[in-house]
Design a protein that fits this description.
The chain starts with 29 loop residues before the first helix and ends with a helix. Helix 2 packs across helix 5 and helix 3 (91-101) packs antiparallel against helix 4. The chain is an all-alpha fold. It is globular, with a radius of gyration of 22 Å. The protein has helices spanning 30-47, 76-87, 91-101, 107-114, 121-139.
Amino acid sequence: MGVIQAWRAGDVAMVARPIHDPWAVGCDQQAVHERLLNYGRWACDKMQTGHCSSVEWQYDAGGREVQPARVARAAVLDAEVIFGALRQLPERERIVLNLWYVNRRTPNRIAMRAGVSPRDLPVVLRSARQMLINRLRRVGG
């Protein structure tokens, strides 16, 4: 019990096949992935609009004050470093990273906008992250 066997001699057991996720972030790019997520939060925070001058939005129907949802705040200085490094990347890689981390577009929309095939987008995304890592090393970020 607990042993998986193949049905025929030439078959390979399903457990033996590694599942490859093309969208997975590698261990070597995990740190820059976290920094890009922070940059995306920072860029989205900048785009949010405020409320009108009325205070009605602060209360629910019962007249109780509504507590604002706690969201992860962006580390502003690190986001600005990433922003500066992104500006120095080639246009295709900059588009891919901005659409993936800031605008949160679908892979097909990103591929169409960047001019790559949807099948090649994971490779372009990984290479864009690696370019950003190299750029940050060069500028000391």
